[in-house]
Write a structure and sequence with these properties.
alpha/beta, 10 strands, about 45% helix
Amino acid sequence: MAGPLENINVAILEHRFTREFSALFEKLGAKVYACALLEEKPVENREELQTFIRHVLGGSLDMMIFLTGVGARFLIGEAESMGAKDDFLSALGKVTIVVRGPKPVAALRQFGLRADVTPQNPTTEGVIEALQTQNLRGRRIGVQLYGTPNPQLVGALEAKGATVTPVQVYAYGAAADSAAVNEFIGRIIDGQIDVIAFTSGPQAAMLFDFAAKMGTEATLAAALQSRVAVASIGEVTTRALEARKITPQIVPEQSKMAALVQAVREHFEAKA
């Protein structure tokens, strides 16, 4: 019996759970083309990271905001490399922990830590809204950044009287080689892909950066605006696509891979 996604070609860019994400689509009969486009790379300035960890160990925080799960793991991993993992976890257990979404919740749970504040909307705006009613004047807040600064969050916290210490834990770098990405983009442009699934905003930015270097940015955008169904996890990812004038047709209510796969299935079943 044919699966619900039989004869559907799916392009994915997920890099940490490529195999698992592919398997979810393949179980439904889809053909998956995967290109692990980017990866998180620890910052080169380890001293800044270690200074922040010593800051936490010294009891100099009242609140810690984790924006990503991989960032939480990197930070705890750096504490472990300093021989201070247990003390670091103990120090975090004494402060109010705020997370942006389910991924940092899951990451912290692995280390026995709980999230005190989890916004309904897993975005920077959601974090700001979740802390709106709290008195932050004089509170010392650490913010785990990723990739780029977050002046919106830092500014909102400082406007409420908090002292904010941001820490850049990792940056994004290219994971796939240029030849593999060129082939991947070529499949999209040539009409070989029916749906592309984005699981993070930086994936969209890097895909178009590669296309710009190839001179195919406009052609790629045209394909994603017309022929190819675009699936997106979460508001942050959707915004990154919309910044490129790409409006996703498939956005699940839950920011989870399984939910995205189900949404893709429902999209094509509705078209059948």
